[in-house]
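Q: Hi! First time asking for a complex rather than a single chain. Here are the components, and I think there are two in total. Is that enough to go on?
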Amino acid sequence: MMSAADSILQIRDLVTAFDTDAGRMTAVDGVSFDVPRGKTLGIVGESGCGKSVTAFSITRLLPQPHGKILSGSILFEGQELTTMPLEQLRRIRGNDISMIFQEPMTALNPVQTVGKQLAEAILLHTQCSKSEVLVRSIDMMKKVRIPAPEQRLNEYPHQLSGGMRQRIMIAMALINTPKLLIADEPTTALDVTVQAQILALIADLQKEMGMSVVLITHDLGVIAEVCDEVVVMYAGRVVERAPVHELFAHPRHAYTRGLLDSIPKLDSKPKTKLKAIPGNVPGIADFKPGCRFAERAGQAHTAEQLNTRPAFVEVSANHWVENCPICAA
Amino acid sequence: MSLLKIQNLKQHFPVRGGVLMRAVAQCKAVDGVSLELGTGETLGLVGESGCGKTTLGKAIVRLLNPTEGKIEFQGTDITHSSMGALRPMRRHMQMIFQDPAESLNPRHTVRDILEEPFIVQGIGTRDERKKWVAELLDKVGLSTSAAERFPFEFSGGQRQRIGIARAIALKPKLIVCDEPVSALDVSVQSQVLNLLLDLQREMGLSYLFIAHGLSVVKHMSDRVAVMYLGKIVELAPAEELYHRPLHAYTKALLDAIPIPDPSKRRERRLLSGDVPSPINPPEGCAFGHRMKNPRWESSVGMDLTLKEVSPGHWVQPCPCCTE
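A: Yes, that's all I need. Here is the structure of the assembled complex.
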C-alpha cells in the first residue's frame, strides 16, 4: 500500500454494521483502501455491496441509532475520523470533506431557495458578511456553469431541471474548496448527455482546485472515463483493487470479469445473447464467512473455501485481489 | 403488412392556467411521428428525458387519446376506438414499465397479478388459470412457489420478471417496453435483456423498446429511431445508425456514452443545456438551438419531414444538423 504522504485518506479494516430487530447486520466487512492525493478513486459494485455505507462511514453520516462503525480506522490527513469527537468532525465535514448524493431532489431542501442553501454551507464554516456570501455564491455557480446565477439564487429546487439541481449540489459541496470530495452515484438519475456534462465538470474542477475524489458508481463505463484507481466491492468486501488501466486490461476476480462482460458494448452484434452473472447479490443476512461470490461463480467451492475468508493479496504492482482459489484464478 | 403503422401521430396536452383554468398553451409531447413495426421486429426508441418517448409508447397502446394522426394495429384503425372496442385488441398489445416496484400492486400476490389479464379477458377456468400461472413463472425463470408471494419479497430483477410474465400472459403480438432495465443493476440487466430476446424468438413478439441508453437499445433492436422534442430526427437499422450517424443529435448521444475501456478516453463533443420545453417549442429545427453555434435560422419554415438518404436510413433534412 501507499505511504501516508501520497494518500489523503487511508481506510483500514473498516467494519460497519446495523443493529436491526433480526440482529446485527455487517454491511461493510473489513474494507481497506487508500485515496491517492489529487486523484480520483472509483468504487464500483452492484446495489447492496456496501459502497454507500463505506462512504457514509467516512463522514459518519450513518443512519442513527442503528448504524455503527465497529472497528477499523479511517485516517484523513493523519487524523482518525472514527473516534473524533462530533464537534471536531463537524468542522471537517462540508469543509475539508464534502459529499454529493445521488438524488439531488431529495438532498436539497425543497422549501428554501438555492441561494439560502448555498449561504448556509458557507456560513457554517466561515464568518463573512452578506455581500461576501453573495459574491462567493455567484462565483461558485458560475464555476459549475449555471447560466444567469443571480436569478437562480432566488429560485427553489423544483424550478430547476435534474442536471441543474445536480450542479447546485456540486456548487454546495465545493464552495468551501474541500480537499476530498465523495460523490455517491452523482449521475445515476441523469440522462447520458447530462451525465457526460457533470463528469466533465467534476474533472475540470478537480484539476482547478487540486482535490481528491471518491466516485461511487455501478457503471464501469463511468469508471473507465474518469477514475485513476478502482476498488471493486462485492457483498460488503473489496474483492479487487487496481489502477484503472490494469483493472480493465487484466481483471483477476470472477466478479470483476462478470461485470465487465455484462455491459452491452456498442460494437457487439445486435440481438445476440449477453453474458450475465447468474443470480443476485446475496442479502446481508446471508453473507458467508468465506468467498461470497461462490454461489454466482458457476463453479463449486469446497466447504473450506466457503468458511474461511480468502486472503487479500498483491498479485502485481498495486493490483490486489481477494485470493479465492476458484474466483481469482 | 406491418403489425403497427402510425402516421403523423400527435399527442398534445393542454396547459391550464388563470382563474377559469382555460387552456393557455399546448404541450406538444408528441408532434407528428410516423413509424412502422413489422412482426417479430424490435424498434428501438431513444432520446433524453422529456423528449416524448414514454408518451409515444402510451399513445400507441391507447392509454391516451391521440390529438391527431392515425394508429393502425393489424390493419385496424384504433386511433379513436372506444374503451369497449379496444378491449379485445388489448390482449395483443401489452406494456412493460420502467419501475417494477411501482407497476405491481403491492397488496396482490404474484398469482393475483398474473391471473388478472385472464380474468379481465374472461379466459379459462380457475384450474386452467392456475396451470397457466405456473407455466408463465417457469417461462420467465421464477419458481412456481413465487405465485403465493408478494412483490416486495422479490429483488428488482425478479420483479421485472413478474412484469414481463404479466405482459406475455395473453400471448400478445406487440409489447411496448418502457425503459425495462434502467432501474436494474448491470449484471441483472443482462439477465432481463436475454430473457426478452428469448421470448421474442419463441413467441414471435414485436417490441417497441424505449430507453435512454443507446448501447442497450442498439443491442436489442433491428432498427432505431432517435427522438428529440416530440419528433423523430433519425431512423435507421441499428448497425447503420451506430456506424454512420447523420443527425447531430444522434452523434451527440453516441458521444455521451461512457466507453468501458480506459485506453479509449477521448475529448468529447458535449451537449450543453437540457431539452427545451415542449410548450412553445423553438422555431425551426429544435436541435439547432442547442448546438455550440446555433444555426437554426436556415431551417425556419422548412419542411422537416424525414427523408430517406440510403435504403432504410431516414433523417430530418435540416441543413444545420446534418451537414
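A: The longest strand of chain A covers residues 7-20. Let me know if you'd like any chain examined more closely.
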